């Protein structure tokens, strides 16, 4: 990865409580690793709720793993990004030399443009833990399940159109920031537990390994 692209990517983490985890694996490999590590939500509890068996539903909820995916397929923003870029390129605005892209200043003769080419949004969490938090603090319902974005960005030569370098990374807001810090012990404890579990699984999916678990940039 070029220095200029690292410099651009680091500027993406600016808000408090936000976390960025760079990936050593490709976008496809990281996608597969994440989906293998976080199971699809088992909705057995819903069948119990449908017949009014609240006790059985509660027991099924308690058996869920700490982290679950809330959809078989993540939201895929890739085609929308491509369509938006294509439309911008076809109808450039006067004075807009980047055609809607994020231009990176460069002292070289060939400036480069950074573009996000692929983006997946996952919803990850645990409905049982979410319910526990909501019972104690209603506002936590705004942030459950947790949204995690997997992104692939490219640094593209403005003169040749060639890809100079690529980067794959995760973006998410830490549960301990969005749902925690309430002063309610039960809520804050659950949020911290989700924070730790999510960071661990994303680091592993990124191919960083447990020995480099601290690589994610926390701000």
UniProtKB/TrEMBL annotation:
Residues 88-109 are annotated as: Disordered. InterPro entries: TT1751-like_sf (IPR035923). Residues 97-109 have a biased composition (Polar residues). This is Uncharacterized protein.
């Amino acid at each position: 990865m070029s220095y200029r692209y690292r410099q651009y990517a680091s500027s993406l983490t600016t808000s408090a409580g936000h976390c960025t985890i760079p990936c050593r694996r490709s976008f496809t490999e990281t996608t597969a690793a994440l989906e293998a590590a976080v199971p699809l939500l088992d909705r057995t509890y819903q069948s119990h709720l449908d017949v009014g068996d609240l006790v059985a539903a509660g027991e099924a909820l308690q058996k869920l793993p700490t982290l679950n995916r809330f959809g078989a397929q993540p939201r895929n923003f890739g085609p929308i990004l491509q369509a938006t870029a294509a439309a911008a390129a076809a109808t450039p605005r006067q004075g807009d030399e980047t055609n809607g892209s994020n231009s990176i200043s460069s002292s070289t003769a060939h400036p480069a443009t950074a573009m996000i080419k692929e983006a997946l949004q996952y919803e990850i969490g645990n409905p049982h833990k979410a319910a526990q938090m909501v019972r104690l603090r209603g506002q936590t319902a705004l942030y459950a399940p947790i949204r995690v974005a997997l992104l692939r960005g490219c640094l593209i030569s403005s003169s040749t159109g060639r890809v100079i370098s690529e980067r794959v990374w995760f973006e998410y807001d830490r549960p301990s920031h969005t749902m925690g810090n309430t002063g309610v012990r039960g809520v804050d404890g659950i949020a911290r537990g989700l924070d730790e579990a999510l960071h661990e699984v994303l680091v592993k999916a990124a191919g960083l390994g447990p020995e480099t678990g601290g690589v994610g940039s926390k701000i």
